[in-house]
Amino acid sequence: MDHQVTVYSTPTCPWCHAVKRYLDERGIPYTDIDVAADYAAALDMIRKSGQQGVPVVEIDGEIVVGFDRARIDALLGLA
Length: 79
Description:
By secondary structure, the protein is of the alpha+beta class. It has helices at residues 14-25, 39-49, 69-76; strands spanning 5-9, 31-34, 56-59, 62-65.
């Protein structure tokens, strides 16, 4: 099944790089949104997650705050 995955990140965030590397290694396509460069996207991320910190991962409408590998795997059916 194809999943809609969006990663809200910043270029200097090591956990953002880690989550994107994790998805890349598993062949999971995603849209990367740099919230440092896109203020409207940052506001959207905060509205969805209630958080200002990154990474925030949206998988099929479900929000994961931080690099929560177990939750990401469960939402992607990898667990």
